[in-house]
Structure prediction request, 481 residues.
Amino acid sequence: MKVFWKYFLIVILLLIGLCALSILYLFFVPGSSLFGITYISYSDNFNSEAYDATNITTIRVNSRAYDVSILPASSEEISLRVYANSLGFVLNRNSDVNIDEKIEGDELIFDIDEPYGAAVINDSRIQLRIPTSKAFNIILNNNSSLTTINNENLQLNNLIYETDRGNLSFTRGTLLGYIDASIGRADFVIGKNAVINNNNVYLSATSGYFEALSTTLGDVIVESNKNAVIRINSCNNFDEDQAEAGGRIQIDTVAQVNITAADTNVYINNLTDGGTIRLTKSGRIEITNVLAETDLFTNTGNITIAESKGPISLTSEDGNIQVTSAYLRVQTNTDYGDVDITFSEEAESYNDNPNSRMLMATTNNGKISATGVENIYITIQDNGRAEISMQDVYGENVIDGKRGSISMIINRYSEYRLHTKTDSGDVSVNLMQIAGTGTGGYTDKERTEYVNCTITSFNATLEVSTTTGSLYIRDEELIEY
Prediction:
């Protein structure tokens, strides 16, 4: 066994020595190759022809990993220069630097060969120079290039960008047309000094990052997405129909949204024209201001709204729902999630606007809390509970608790017919306007009372019922009784 390991070690050392000799040979004999491998050491510039821009509307650059920058030309001609400063070991077929250029119709195409393998790029780069007197369609296709557009005199029409890992920084310049960005795992950043004219954006990404935090975009259409982060200052419409998408969407101001995703977290500051958001897994929704009719759905994520001045429909199977300041109709549906709705002190009365201070809520096993409501429909389908504080009572109001418990506090001056009923639950109703005031009210399993009205003069009704759940009703004067 010792003899075996002795000879095995000798063989390994011989192979290492052979590899070292091969590397030295490739390094010291320029242009040589072994086993299809060669050593490169570039420090050269390669220039394209100069093309008159008169009949050119589109410029396409297909490259690999060299940095790409777009610069203003000093004339009315289009040109491209490659600064090659690569060195290392590559396959023979991947060792050349070359610019293949052609015109097809009104499109000028640059195909750039770059050496790649076990090589370093150093300061290798590509410069595309275009006239500033004309807005061109720019198409950039690369694998991992760092691309920059950073000159205030540049004008672009449409910008089409396709990469896997190549970041693009649009710092300065003017964009007149749309953006079509297929960014894979890369970053695409539009800076505050870029001039954007409500341009539409078509976005495809896997785990990339798209940012436009200081500009106003037109319509943003997400055509594919796996786990991207999208951050936008303002846009007209935002559309994403990607049922398995994760990641994050953050928008300061948007007119309308239509989002279908899975684990995506959605954060919106101002939603002015409403829309629909449907998250089928653990994604959550947080909106500061809702100004129009909106429909929101999550599976296990939470829904949080600071202020809602439009009618809203909110559904979360296992997540919680919270609206801190509501004005108009709120409709909620949960399974195990809790619901907490507070109507603003500035909201109109339901009596003046039948769409105001209205809550329609359904739950199985969650808790429903509401404050400032004036018209209410609640159904507890299993063992949940409801805690309601009514500012007034208008129209028809129905609360069906089944096995769940119901607790209510009602404005003492409200006028309504009250009907309470339970099959086997506990009952405690104590209002200033009914018999038994201050002594515990009534505990009847079923009873009808006319609160601040008569049998012939009531305009509002409140039906409260359970099967086995408890039923507790007070006005604000008798909370302690």
Remarks:
- The first strand starts at residue 33 and ends at 34.
- Confidence is low (pLDDT under 50) at residues 4-8, 13-35.
